[in-house]
Amino acid sequence: MARYRLSLLSVAMLTAGIGSLAQAQQAAPAPVEQTTEEQVEVIQVRGFAQSLFRSLDSKRFSDVVSETISADDLGALPDVSIADALTRLPGISAVRTGGQAAEINIRGMSGGFVFSTLNGREQVSTSGKRNIEFDQYPSELISSAAVYKSPKASLIEGGVAGTVELQTARVLSNQQEHTFTANLRGMMNDRANEVPDGKEHGHRFSLSYQGKFLDDTLGLALGYARLYQPSVATQFIGLAYNVSRDLNQDNRPEYISEGFEIQHLGGEETRNGYLGSLQWQPHDAFSLTGDVFISKFDKEAFARGFRVKFEGATANISNPIYNGSSLIGGNISRTRNGFTRVEVVNDDNRDSDEVHSYGLKADWDINDRVNLVFDVSHSRASSDFRNGLLWSLVAQDATVANPVLDPNVAINYQLNGLNLPAIGLSQAAAFSDINRLMVSKYGIYPYLNTDEVNAAKLDLSFDLELPIIRSIEVGARYSARRYSNDRSVFEYGSDGMFLTGQPPLRLTQDMVKKVDFKGKFSSYPSYLAIDLDKALAAWFPQGIPQPVQTWGAGNPDVINRDPNSTANTAWSVLESGRVYEDVLASYLMANLDTELFGLPLSGNIGVRRVTTDQSATNLSDVGGDPLRGAQNIPDQAGLINTRYAASIVGDKYTKHLPSLNLNLALTDEWQLRFASAKVISRPPINRLASVTSFNISDTGEITGNSSNSPFLRPFEANQYDLSLEYYFGSGALAAALFYKDIKSFIQDDVLPNFDFKAAGFPVPDFIIPDPESGVPVATRNGSLFTAVNNSAGGYIRGAEIAWTQVFKSLPGAFSGLGAQLSYSYTESEVSLINSLGGEPIESSFEGLSKNVVNATLFWEYQGIDTRINARYRSPFVSSQVGINEQITNFDSELVVDFQFGYQFNDNLKMLFQVNNLTDEPTKSYFGQQAMTGTLQFFGRQYFLGAVYSF
Asked: Does this entry carry the keyword tRNA processing (predicted)?
């Protein structure tokens, strides 16, 4: 059958077969006879070592530059999600969120440049961007994962950094008729006792079944994976330097931070994953496969502690301490009618994320030379995030009928780089005194996000068996993507003062609990943790407002209707919107099989043509002028806003993406790869949303402003890869060079001669005299300040080396020893300007660590299976979340995991695992280490459990 034919190179390699999967599963450890005079060593390996050889086989016989993790590897490593497992591959690192890998970086590029598929189908995201959140995908339900570092024409476009392909089980490929696996692990976090109400214990549980029926023509796979884990951390977060003032009268501004936070984080995370796959193959020439994958991830989290807010440019500052031109310490006090303050925070966040993926694939060998594959799919994701905030301020006396805010706020602090700062707060004793502390504000800010894509693709391959071209592949794919976000708000009270119309709440003893910081944070003041439900019930005796009642109900809550509220009711309208993206792609690719200088050469050459039609709903601020299109636009509460004109605006473009992959077999063991391609990554889907304000002068001059833009084009790059790979009987060694010529980035800029009307904005034609002829003409052009594609670009280049070996030649028990080591070096001329630390500082490209090291040492002997893995990445730039998202420099980190297992028999295995063995924190800073960003400590995770299979 056409689909089972191998290239000449593949046949040669399979004949040699050194270290291949077929050999790894042989029962005899001795050399075996070959059809030629050559004898080849066969190594018998099982467990983790076997999974490594499977991964090497996939890399070796792939027609693109790739890295792979096998099913055994994913099932056995101590990974909550596949993100951690992927970071063990060369050139791949992770950004930790809550102590665990959620976003992966490939070759120095952040998650926004990574495209992901499941069973070859595009996946949408709960992040509001394009990159998927890998912690949404349980490792127990994924049978293999591959990272394609070079593309080919038949792969879906979208990954400048690379493409991650996740695969679920294909039952009819199993050797056994029926298999069943149960996995149960208890969990404990050793920092939970530092966090008030922190949960210490959790669990992981999974069940999977694979079976073949009707003479192996029907296969069924079912899987369920549950994760329940505590989420705990203790953190300091420095906030951005967002104002400046000449503090020392030297005619140069000094930059002042917004403040800082010291908090306990706690909560719990529950993820339930479901998998179903039905495969029908009535004969060798036809198969039909249906897949279902569902993952539901619910997170309940709280943040408790205090937030220090400076007064900005008007702050009263004495004894300043500087780092360059930025303030990193001093004495700050509240000015008359100022807002310098310390807020005791009791925030309560709830996030409900869901991912659904469905697909149906028909694979038909029409004859011995022609194969047809038709695939339809649906992927959708939704995120319902509720950010509930409860702030408290210090009163002079909370026991009186009309309490007054205590104005005597004095803050003494000095940042300490990547160590905790020294602070002194004049009101510290009041933070745990119910006779002084009062609740001043409650707010809830729902954010409902949905993203879905429907797609269909058709692929045809023609087996030609010509001297150079082995086969031709052609195909087409159409996808329709729809993204929406809905925002709303409920606010009561004030976070900076006591309101008379919405007076503060006096706390009672049954509502609160005194909390002390421990460990490294023990020098910081105690505070009151407040029971949210009891406080709200006392504050709203006539009944809790509807947004609180419908908390977590799955719909965006309404803007509060309180007549005394100061909430901006237009906010939810401006923050909400829709994005529409339709893509039609086609490709032509030739698979090569020939010789060069007498050596086998294989690979592919092709081109992919992609046409994208993108648009978004737009609200233009026309000042309520009906002549300029002002409409009555209701918000979620039904309140009418008359200031804006609604429209749909967008763009359409076509890209041609050529690619070349060549693999030259120097010997049976050595092979040389070269790859070249043009690649694209579309902008984050939320950046295509549109809200525009513009003004029209009396002479018809138009000026507009929009923070995002539906006219953004993709990131583009030309990339080149060269690698040399050596496969020997007990492992492999590979070295690679790569170069990416980035053509564009997104930045804010001015489009000087923008045609507003042609783009769909509601502006009238203005008749003005032509500047040269004086003849009246119609104009609708003007200047638009918006997000644009910067064509400056630059290179990203680097080198990788990876080594894997099982030391089978060692005597006795040492024969089970093995190692896996990889090192990646990446550099770039691309730089970003970051001003969150005050004076603008040039920083590296987001996600780029110059040095990434991954090392695993493992030992398997007589049922014992143990290994330790260390992952190091040098400093990099990424985003953190304070009050708002902030781009900061992250310090280097070394994350160590350990696992020990014992196989009692063929069915039962015991496992003990430790994640983050050295309790590695996350540390970040604003451009220079003296300006502290995040210091976050997560703790170690311990797992103890067993796997039973038959």
From this structure: no
Opening angle at CA 189, ends 186 and 194, nearest 5: 145
Tell me the C-alpha distance between 131 and 114, whole Å. 6
Q: What's the CA gap between 274 and 82, in Å, rounded?
A: 15
CB 801 within 8 A of CB 822: yes
Report, as an integer, the average pLDDT of 573-585.
87
Distance separating alpha carbons of residues 410 and 551, to the nearest angstrom: 37
Residue 229's nearest CA partner among 196, 190, 193, 202 is 202
pLDDT greater than 50 at residue 17: no
What pLDDT shows up at residue 871? 92
Residue type, 43: I
User: Options 2.170.130.10, 3.30.470.20, 3.90.1150.10, 3.40.50.1820; which CATH number does 44-232+790-909+923-949 get?
Assistant: 2.170.130.10
Q: SS3 string of 504-518? A: CEECCHHHEEEECCC
> Which residue would you say has higher pLDDT here, 723 or 68?
723
- Measured CA to CA, the distance from residue 321 to residue 330 in angstroms comes to 6
Residue with tokens 């996600």: 847
| Tokens coding 548 | 């609180």
pLDDT at 612 over 60: yes
From first CA to last CA, the distance across the chain in angstroms is 33
Question: How many residues can be counted in the chain?
Answer: 950
Tell me if 662 sits within 8 A of 644, measured CB to CB: no
Contact status, residue 663 vs residue 591, Cβ threshold 8 Å: no
Query: Please, is 758 exposed, middle or buried when counting C-beta atoms within 10 Å of its C-beta (0-12, 13-18, 19+)?
Result: exposed
d(CA 108, CA 131): 15
- Which stretches of 685-793 are assigned E, i.e. beta strand? 690-696, 702-706, 715-728, 731-742, 745-755, 766-769, 776-779, 781-790
Q: Whole-angstrom Cα distance, residue 914 to residue 528?
A: 33
Q: Please state the rounded mean pLDDT for residues 435-459.
A: 92
Name the pairing type of β-strands 885-890 and 876-881: antiparallel
Q: With H, G, I as helix, E, B as strand and everything else as coil, classify residue 483.
A: strand
Residue 177 φ/ψ, nearest 5 degrees: -75, -45
- Highest mean pLDDT: which range of 46-50, 52-56, 259-263, 760-764: 259-263
**Quick check: 361 and 375 in contact, CB under 8 A?**
yes
Mean pLDDT, rounded, for 401-415:
92
Locate tokens 């936070």: which residue? Answer: 261
Judged against a pLDDT cut of 50, whether residue 509 lies above it is answered with yes
The three-class DSSP label of residue 738 is strand
pLDDT at 648: 85
77's tokens: 């490593």
Q: What whole-number distance in Å separates Cα of residue 87 and Cα of residue 164?
A: 12
Q: Which amino acid is at 279?
A: Q
- Between CA 371 and CA 3 the distance in angstroms is 7
CA within 13 Å, CB half, 352: 10
pTM of the shown model:
0.85
C-alpha 302: how far from chain center: 21
| CA–CA gap between residue 753 and residue 155 (Å, rounded) | 38
At 764-802, the pLDDT tens digits run 665 556 666 666 656 667 777 776 666 667 889 999 999
| Confidence at residue 414, expressed as pLDDT on a 0 to 100 scale | 95
- Going by the DSSP 8-state scheme, the letter that residue 558 receives in this structure is P
Residue whose C-alpha is closest to residue 67's, from 146, 139, 134, 120: 146
Contacts of residue 771, defined as CB under 8 A and 6 or more positions apart, other chains included, come to none
- Distance between CA atoms of 458 and 361, rounded to whole angstroms? 10
The whole-number pLDDT of residue 28 equals: 34
Letter for the amino acid at 463?
D
Residue 601 corresponds to which tokens in the numbers above?
Answer: 């050469």
